[in-house]
Amino acid sequence: METNSVELRNVTKRFGEVVAVDNMSIDVEQGDFLTLLGPSGCGKTTTLRMIAGLETPDEGEVFLDGKVVNTVPANLRNTSTVFQNLALFPHMTVKENIAFGLQCKKVPKAEINKKVKRALELVQLQDLGGRRPAQLSGGQQQRVALARSLVLEPVVLLLDEPLAALDRKLCEEMQVELNRIQKDVGITFIYVTHDQTMALAMSNRIALMKDGIIVQLDTPGNIYEEPRTRFAADFMGIANIFHGKSVIHGQEKIELETDSGFKVLAPSREEVAGMDASDLSVSIRPEAVKMHLNVEKDNLENLYPGTIKEHMYKGETMEYRVAIGRGDIIIVSLNKNEISPGMENGRDVFVELPPERCQILLED
Amino acid sequence: MSKLFKGVNATFIGFAFLFIWLPLLAIIVFSFNEGRYAIYWQGFTLHWYYELLRDTLTLNAFRVSVIVTSFTVLISTAFGTLAAYGIYKYKFWGKEILRGTLILPLVMPCVIMGISLLLFFSRVLQMPLGYVSIIAAHVAFSIPLVTFIVLARMQRVDWTLEEAAMDLGANRLTTWRRVIIPMLTPGILASVALTIPWSFNDFVITFFVTGVGTTPLPVRIYSMIRLQGISPVINALGTIVVVGSILIILAVQIGALIRQKRAEAAE
What we know:
By secondary structure, chain A is α+β, with helices and mostly antiparallel strands. Chain A is built from eight helices and 20 strands. Chain A starts with 5 loop residues before the first strand and ends with a strand. In chain B, helix 3 (56-89) runs parallel beside helix 6 and helix 7 (160-167) crosses helix 8 (172-201). The A-B interface holds A 52-54, 73-76, 79-81, 83, 85, 87, 89, 91, 100-101, 104-105, 130-131, 135, 148-149, 152 and B 158, 160-161, 163-171, 174, 178-179, 182-183, 266-267.
């Protein structure tokens, strides 16, 4: 049985009155790319720092490679952190920065030189060893920070939103780089971010966090396709979320009455099957919503009259904002071949929410 | 900037420079003067410099000053920096009290400090006055100076570097040596640059805690003036100190310039 790289068991951390991390448990396997995703203040950075040894848990245990490390100080742990501001030593060259950790471990000089050289090759900065951090571009500094941490061959590499300061294109390039390097080296990565697109792009598992607990732990595909709670759906950028209570609660199907009064039929959820639940939400993706100018058949489920308020051209699709019910807006995304002439602002239409595409969301 | 403003500005700066430099120039010039009284030029001579070399009391006083200042700078820089670190990074009971007490030596009148220290050494500790008493008194004043200067520098330091160093495996000592001290160097140098002149030139406090045989230079000069009147030997001494200081500062600046040019050439 292979031990997990990192394990947290019932870890709690308080700062004064505030509980930053609340009884959290998680296993991270060797070679995983796990992202801790969540809004500011959800405890993701605190969790990362407890793994690094920069904070101590108030309760619970932190395991590295199967051993408890609560009392082991940061400089003796086999983890390495890439900080948000990179924290490159400004008074040292790139080579000296990378060599720093090895020198602390008293590795012989010849071996240090070899390892530094290999690290520079790994991040493709071979010719820049003699420069100072201030003389490098943002992307290059990123890579030095990575090399500096990787050269120590840690059990797990911890990354605290290191791509936050980069511009869009560079950020995407670095994401590809990070994945490539991780596959090359095989080290476990734990990444902290508030940006769900980054999390979806890079990770093989996402831990969505809120108020110190893990709300959903799953693969990117599952979290995006099947969010468990309203918060999860909202955070992943899913539009069309309506809160309400169940009026018909079958084992297979639920009818939800939204707060603004319209009723939606949707497949039931295991957690609330057959139960009267008053704190639920329903969501549907804009691409799944159908829009009709006229309605001939009247056996369509979840059909609502509305008015087009706005539309936005998005290249391959057109996005419509349709007002229905008492002030709700549904966002509809149509392909070019789904658009009929006449779908303009002010036009009265019917929107159809196919029940099988609707998802019930729990409240957390 | 209008021309008039520039002109007025230059004039003021000119006067400021004159105000500072004329007395010093006068001392330098008259150190080579034949006559005893610095009233008019009587001829060039190095006589007073020879007198200075034979004046063992004064030379001794110079040695005492150098020793006292050296120890003061070393001790107060070390303790002041550590104090600044403690105040900046830690919360502890009595922290604000400490901060308040630290500023006292800087604002208290020197005479009061001098007298209290004298009473403390002679009555409370009942120790003889000598190197220890002078250095202790100087350190008491210098530590607050160093602490506040280094504290100010610490506000501008990126402390994630300290965390990064520890995360990479450095223990406290290595972190201090390779990361924290290099980051604090400008602050430490500034405090050294302020402590040296203060300690070397201090008269009032030193006067009270000096013992026989360990007379620093300012106190010696005072005695000379009291006993012998103003002798041009003092001018010679003053000239040496001024010129020496200027040379040291020039050396430091040239050194910095050379290092900068080398760094630029290396790119």
